[in-house]
Amino acid sequence: MQSVKFRLNGNPVTLKTDPTRRFLDVLREDLSHTGPKEGCGEGECGACAVLIDGHITNSCILPLGNVDGRDVMTIEGYRETERYRVLEEAYIAEGAVQCGICIPGMIIASESLLHHNPSPTDDEIRIGLSGNLCRCTGYNMIIRAIKRAAERGKGLW
Amino acid sequence: MVSHAIPKTYAEALEILKDGTHRVVAGGTDMMVRNRAWAGLPPAFDKPLLFAFNLPELKYVRVDEKAIYIGSMTDLETLLHHEDTPSLLREVIGEMASPAIRYVSTLAGNIVNASPAADSLLALYALDAQIVLESVEGKRVLPIEKMILGPGKTVLDHDEIIAEIRMPKSSFTHTAFRKVGGRRADAITKVGFIGCAVVDDGIIRDLRLIFNAVAPTLVRVKSVEALHIGHAIEDVLDDIETITHHYAEHINPIDDQRSNRAYRKETALELARHFIKTLQ
Amino acid sequence: MSNIHHSVPKIDASEKISGRMAYVADIRIDGMLHAKTVRSTEAHARIRDIRVPTLPEGYYVIDHRDIPGKNVVKMIFEDWPVFAVDKVHHIGEPIMLVVGPDKRVVQTLVDAIEIDYEPLESVFSMTESVIHYHYDKGDAEAAFKEADRIIAHEYDTGYQEQAYIEPQGFIGTYEDDRIHLIGSIQAPYYVKNAVIETMACAPEDIRVVQATVGGAFGGKEEFPSLIGCQLAVALKKIKKPIKLIYEREEDMDTTTKRHPSKTRIEGAIKDGKITALRTHIGIDSGAFIGLSGVVLSRAIIASTSAYTVDNLDISGDVYKTNTVPNGAFRGFGAPQMIYAVEMFFHHVAKELGVDVHAFRLKHLAKQGDRTSTSGLFRDPILMPEMIERACAMSDYHRKRKAYADPNVYKGIGMSWFLHGCGFTGSGEAEHIKAKVTLEKLASGLVHLRVAAVDMGQGAKTTLMKVAAETLGLPLERIVYDNPDTDLVPDSGPTVASRTAMVVGGLIARAAARLKDEWNDGEHQTITEQYTQPEYMAWNQDTFTGDAYPAYSWGVNVVEVEVDKTTLEVQVKNIWSTYDVGKSLDDNIVIGQADGGTAQGVAYGYLEVMRHHRGKLLQKNMTDYVIPTAVDMAKTETELFDNPFAFGPYGAKGAGELTLVGGAPAVALAIEMAIGERVHSIPATPEYLMEVLKNAKR
After folding, report:
1. What number is the ipTM of this complex?
2. Residues of chain A found within 8 Å of residue B29, distances taken between Cβ atoms
3. B59 to chain C, minimum CA–CA distance in Å?
4. Would you call C247 an interface residue with chain B, using a CB distance cutoff of 8 Å?
5. C-beta separation of B266 from B273 below 8 A
6. For the whole model, what pTM was predicted?
7. Structural domains in chain A?
8. Is residue C379 assigned to a domain?
9. Residues C233 and C359 both lie in one domain
């Protein structure tokens, strides 16, 4: 048992638990943050994505020990932001959501992308989403949603 | 019982490693998958882990006139955007995995994982990377080919950690990188190739041909490269089919869930031939 | 005409985007136990002995001996056991569950269970037929006798995995002697009816509730009945809440997939036309038949795709092998056959030395033609306009000339296809007898009581729009909760592109009645039951008559570039035109089109799954490759209005149609790019290398 400290959605968290545990399990089971989902368990699908210091990371292959001292934001925290509101509006308007299981991860990927590149091209968006699998949409509506968010949210990123 | 360690400083990490009881984890993207258990249960590791990814002393990129020096816990996404990253390495990283993986992947992790299909290793072999290993006893520096023994096997000792990756400055007149994966992004390589050359006045002055996913380790055969160096490009082109013969015993791929032997072999050689043809 | 096709915000989008929506894995119940399945490691074997370690207090093993009723998962063909008894028939076949509070202990127990097998001879080739179907149209024999020429080709297809991002799972409770299951499912009543058989209990003892589904594509049609039955057995014995969520590898290793197939088509050619086809398709059911017979019937009925051929001799077999059972997947047998038919028409035209496009147009089905099963295409067919539009959108004719150059590794391929809407033949009227109820509360809120599942395809939004539009009420006055068998009648499974057309049609009818009978402040309940259009006549034994009440139609054009050195295929563009009757929401229909086409195209060139002696080689999301955003091309889709008299606002089926044309379109584009024929999909670089090598020889 180690003591691991980090910030979660702005709040300090200290946990005494096995640091080899998958951060996804810690979030979902210990902290009741079920926005990040388990799709593949091997970092392939991105449904479990969270932001660590503002960067997208797959929490299903992230050991808790590596979160020590870091700043974590999950969809639960991100949905309280203005940027989220712009993204949500865009995803809805473009019809980008079908089954929805990948979408919290897609939102995290969208944020991570726009944070580094506030006005991405289509190709840059595709690359930015390349670690987030969606089986329903064929991605095109998601790509349009991100473009829409980038335009409507000018200045936010 | 020895427990997992999350050291705050590099010195502390080396001290913990001293007894050889711990296994270093960098980003963990390979180790967490390989050792995973039923969702909700911690992965099963053979040794307690030492979490090194956040050690500040190992996160740097430095350059001087001779080389680039990369702290071992520098993530690949940082390298992708760093102005001093050799362009060939940057090109390779750009096609590796996905942003979410690159933010927590390291060259050191790729080296110790020693996958025959590792993309970053293509660049490290091509750029004559030197690996700095450190323990409380001191440092040793090894060329990448000496570092890796086989799939998942390296010469890293139980008390050692990779401290740094160095690459001498190099310049080429021609470079090519091709990763062939099952899809266009976020894929494990079926077969990959890097070619670099210096061609001056029609003469090949330097030639490096590296292949991955075609043998237990990456393939770079300096003796074959040497056969071509110093020769006129036309002569090499006339003789291009001999490349199949030269690599016959080195390029020895397998059938697996991602591709097959015939495709890997043919494609690897075709990529090399294609590269050489571009040199004229 | 109503503006119902104008898109509205999807009713559940905000909850999904924000991460608030609970999927089954997100549900926790105090005191719940965890279940893990012990599975066969053998493809075919007798179980000699099972040694279970002493179980700690509070831990259980559940197997076939705990089943109070029938040890069979009730579906169409009842050969699928809930738990293996003394024999296993495929690797991964469930033998028992281990259940307990601590996952660590459960896992240790699973690992400690020893099973002694006596291996039996396994079958991996398509040799043991368990179902054979055959039908005729016209007189194929005579046509073959009179033919100028006979051309035959073979085509085969591989597995396809649904690869929904949310693995299968259930959580269940046992309260007041009732079993309550919450699961990621497409068909609440399939699960309920299966559990009733297994538990030998009364219908009121079982309650099945759909949890929000994270993708299904047919994969959650029949398979969840198996998990539901197993969990019900455990719940009855243990009487505590239990959660059973599949791991990704477990899911890919053991759940149903698209049937691999082999098709042989023989065509009789007379005066430059195909006058008869003699076709045989074999599909690999895996170890249990399950829905395979129904998949086979859809495949053979699709034997002429969007063409009319007057004389047919069509047959097919389901072959049993010692491999993972295959089952429902969007398209349901049609993708295999339509791929083969489209390739065949192209290959015949090439062999005849005629213009492929003109040759195909000559055979295109028209209103008034007889269908493959001698039924009637009653409704207008807009294919000529849809084809012309798709050609214009994609610049098809110019490109196919330009890409004919053997030095250009680019190609463009076009597929034409149809999809029968709803269940085959009289299945809807005789087996399903769908009912829907509208319940108007005194407050004026109208609840849709239907068993239809929103698995992402937008069923909730679509059906609510139909009700709101008919009632003249705002959408906010309509309520559509996830179906709960305690509250909703059996409106059938959410499959076969039937939901918008059939369930939507019933809702429209019920809503119209409710509007007529509306009394403010009164609690009112209106129920409607499906009646088949009177013109439908179907003979299941001879496969003759109207196989479907309506057909949706489509055109896909796919443009590719093939790398000369590595033979990697890059899909550059996709254009489509569709006739789904009437779109009930443009964003939703185009979303279906984008996603269906992505799956269909990837089936044709990208997605590889194979087995070695019954062991799947690609069993996780790393090795089973589905398209990323970088792989998927830009799509341009146009919808054609062609209202169907019996569909709500004219709607027909849309969900499956969009998948079935993808594979032939991409395969034809690849053919053009490499200048050699494709007979097998997925057309991977490895396969293309073989094709080119063989061509050189």
Report:
1. 0.99
2. 43, 58, 61
3. 29
4. yes
5. no
6. 0.98
7. 4-77 (3.10.20.30), 81-152 (1.10.150.120)
8. yes
9. no
